[in-house]
């Protein structure tokens, strides 16, 4: 039932991850081929594949992997509700229907551990994650370092969104995730449909007229669009806090953003039409234990955090396997294509559907009513300082040594 909540009032008790059976690998040849017709490169590739297959099979069944699994923090495999209740906080979960038929999940921490009064009397704050994120981003650290818990303990009624297409918002009134039509969306639709549905539901549920909005990365992008094009929605915002705000990404230079410079046809050929980087339980249960091992920990940190820029002073390195296991939550390929269009055009504009007939009306900048606080980070390989100066508002809080990928999990929040 849409709008129905799931309440978790008691802490989740997590036992050590049980040993999982190994993954069987098999190499099947659909046809035989003569060795004399093989090139040296082909033969090498086959032997490499066989070697890697047996290596992973051996690791999967080994006692060493079992020890690595036991070393993984139990929070690595928890849901958002479990992450919240594991730390002793109350948790509620709601499903909300958008105007275009998607069902998005919203998580709530109605009060903190030290203030259990009526939520109706508390100021409401809504947190919206960034690209490839989910609501777990706000509760992944310990209570004294997680923004969701900090706000709850400070007396706020905390709500956290999950954008369409991530691992918690994969339902539609008409389409299934196996249909191309389900994935035909980008941050345009998140701004036009997801954000209004979430905000209106929260205000109706709490009986309040306005709320505080905190967006991170793409969470700021959809807010800029929504609050600029829907003044009636902007009127419901007391104050908008923009963490690592993004509009155009013309000056992006990070390793991950280089993918966006590829021609659109190439991207579509590589990525397909549906989802991009979905989280799979099977892969998570392999990667998290491996990254918990001392021999691989540094490599995992380097690969994971250098994608967006990193200052390890701002994170709890002992929770690397938790961060990695909870990432990424996935999005649509069309959303990635939209960001690619932003890179190549250098403009903050609506998604280009490829023809004048299908093209949506281009985004028009309108001064949003209400106040905006803008946080920018210095160590961001995904977006250069020049870009931030293009679209920043009157109030800029400049903080050194923060990077785009680290805002939600920073221990200096």
Automatic annotation (TrEMBL):
Lineage: Eukaryota, Metazoa, Chordata, Craniata, Vertebrata
Protein name: Uncharacterized protein
Gene: LOC116447391
Signal peptide per UniProt: none
Protein family according to the UniProt entry: Belongs to the AB hydrolase superfamily. Lipase family.
Highest taxon of source: Eukaryota
Matching Pfam families: Abhydro_lipase
Matching SUPFAM superfamilies: alpha/beta-Hydrolases
Any one Gene Ontology BP term: lipid metabolic process
